[in-house]
Write a structure and sequence with these properties.
Layout: H1 11-24, H2 30-50, H3 53-63, H4 65-68, H5 76-87, H6 96-110, H7 118-131, H8 135-151, H9 165-172, H10 176-190, H11 197-209, H12 225-237, H13 250-253, H14 262-273, H15 276-285, H16 287-292, H17 297-315, E1 319-321, H18 322-329, H19 336-345, E2 349-354, E3 359-365, H20 372-414
Helix pairs in contact: 1-2, 2-3, 3-6, 5-7, 6-8, 7-8, 8-9, 8-10, 10-11, 11-12, 12-14, 15-17, 17-18
Keywords: Cytoplasm, Initiation factor, Protein biosynthesis
Subcellular location: Cytoplasm
Subunit structure: Component of the eukaryotic translation initiation factor 3 (eIF-3) complex.
Amino acid sequence: MATIVNTTEEEPMLAVVRFTAELAWADAGPEVADPEVTRLCLEAQEHILAGRWLDMASLMLASADLLLTPPSRVPDKDLECVLSVICSLVTKAGSEDQALQITDLICDKLTQQPDDKPALRLKVLFSLYNLLPSPYFKALVYKKALELATAGKAAEYIIPSFKNIDSFVNEWGIGNLEQRELYLAITRILKDHKGMTKDYFKFLNKYLATFKGSDDDSATIGDAKEEAVAAIIEFVKSSNLFQCDLLNMPAVAQLEKDEKYQLVYELLKIFLTKRLDSYLEFQTANSALLKDYGLVHEECITKMRLISLLDLSSCCSIEIPYSAITESLQINDDEVEQWIVKAIAFKILDCKVDQLNQTVIVSRQTERIFGMPQWQGLHTKLGVWKGNIASAINTIQANKVTEEDTQAMHGLTIH
């Protein structure tokens, strides 16, 4: 029998090959198993000495195939250790192209049976991710992890990473189309995951925002209709969302002339630009549509009353009479303060109630749409504040000079 000469540096790789080979040939008996194990170990040693890391990866993954085929006879801890050693091969690759080939081999092997030990497979993929020097490779591995989490129904293991997506995208330097694919994959994971409605809406927005309305998008923007509708329904349903940019997105605007979805777009316009009376008129004519999308009429009324209050705060002077609120919200006089308290609780309105004069004095309100007019209004306010501050500083300086002159004159009088 040939003797295996191990080097300290490569010992883990040879140990993995020996371990997997012995496991693979365990049922064949020592007469058959020993020569095969020795052969594989010699082949592995030759690859190591020659620096053929791609061949080494192929050999190790082929030997480890038994470990990844259910039912596995290897404890998860040992399996993770074996796969981690295989992943370390990417750090030894002599070129980026070779590292990419090794990465592809590992990813393909790990994603072949996503239903078996998906949590462990994802853990190994993220270990591989952390070993890769190239941001582009990292993006590829993360995409594979998304696919594995989806196919293996293991979303809970990858969802925590979504909070870092913005920094990931910046690090990876991926283009608009790749970002679109990424955001779409994430929305599909979050769609049916309980308690993730806010994040689902956030990534729907990110996905839809990748459509700029350019000629490059003309062939694909129609694919975004379903997600555009989903985003609209999520906004209307949400009890704590009062502002969004959907209306001006090309992927959403295409619905305005779409025979199937134009009413959904009209509903969005009502919630972002109109008041309760417009919603009630729409509901009367389209109650079946609202039910089809799971919208509850009473909840829509509540939201539209708060939105109408915001619209009053935006359109009127800083003082809103109770009478305007009762008319717009279609409520009684004794309900005004109740709705003011609700708006304050949702942090969409800052105001004071003047019960004596039956007015509400508004200091801040959430804008439903924050576009160019809102930016211009903010610019004007900042200009006024800047002027007021400058005036206050000039007054303070003038008073200081007057006080110093007075003190100086008083000193002369004493002498």
